[in-house]
Amino acid sequence: MFRLLARWRRLPFDYAALPDYMLRHGLLDPYRRSIGGIVLTMVVAGGALFLSPIGPTGAAESALMITAMVGGAVVAVLWWVRPWPTYRQSVLFVVCADLLIFCALLSVADAPTAFTLSTAFLVVGVYCGHFLPMTALFLHVGATVSGSAILMVIAARASDGDTALLVVQLLVLATLFVFMPLLTQVPLFHLRDDAYRSADDPLTGVLNRRGLHQVVAGHGHMHLPADHVVGALVIDLDGFKHVNDTLGHAGGDDVLRRVGERLRVVTDGWAVVARLGGEEFGVVAAVPASVFRNRFTAVHEAVHWGDDPVPVTASSGLAWQSADEFRRDHSDVDNLLRRADRIMYDAKRDGGDRLDIAHCPPDAPGDRPTTRSDSTPHRRPYDDVA
User: Fold this and answer.
1) b/e map of 242-275 (b: 16 or more CB within 10 Å)?
2) Which of 141, 166, 198 is the endpoint of a domain?
3) What is the pLDDT of residues 111-153, one digit of tens each?
4) Is residue 386 part of a domain?
């Protein structure tokens, strides 16, 4: 079990992964509305306690319950009218939900009943188990176990009941608080890890073509600023057969790994990098139009390092589409890559070791003649090989 937890702790966490999957399958909005409905149900349950003899009796207790109900109603409305929350908003939701539930339980006049009703924390725990990382889950579990322990102490002092039974209840609740979300999160994280691996190129560690589509098309619910353009850069290593002939296939694999790593470093999280097949890589990103040319030129030039055992160069083609026209579906991604691929082959036919751009958005909105990169072509050790 400890090995399982240790592996779980090392797995990558991508908050957007599950919402993106749900969005692609039409589940995100129904889930969002359902969560709002669950919150409202708990608000109604709190209001019904006013009709019960064990409900809030004093002014302070009534104020606590009303505060919890108003807060819960606001949260429910936000779930209905707002898009799926960001990571920070999700964490804030969990914190607010835990506090509102605790306030509502403190207002219940019968302390042992309030202690029993602390099972309501489980609803929030299930949300944590599905959508938040291990750290957030453990913080939630620690907070809810502590809150239940406080309610248990209040219950023990408020009655002559069986203290041993209250302790047993706390142990059962603590077990549920820990293991129900944990048993949800562990397999989900492993499924996500498997999904990440299936989307990765095993040789270079960058995404494969399938992973590129998943990442780019999967963030369709995220807004792109109006001044951005979406660029697709296709990079094909020049004369790679000669690299394999010089270094052997193992050496060729090392070259591909180095190129993949350089592309990851130079993009530094602002672009999606994938190996499209063979010695061909793709880079897709939404960037401000004003830095479009410089950003992608830097990516193209990162391929060549003069101190490599066999320095490689690349023929690259760059295509783009305005942010307001880009729908981020599979057809848009494929169209951009096809256009960039055609431009890349034009660069290769012109001798390679160059970046060609069909037109440059910062200069003009329409098509312009192919633009060669400003870098001086690099002479390769294998240029004279027949």
Assistant:
1) bbbebeeeeebebbbeebbebbbebbeeebbbbb
2) 198
3) 888 888 888 888 898 898 888 887 888 888 889 889 888 988 8
4) no
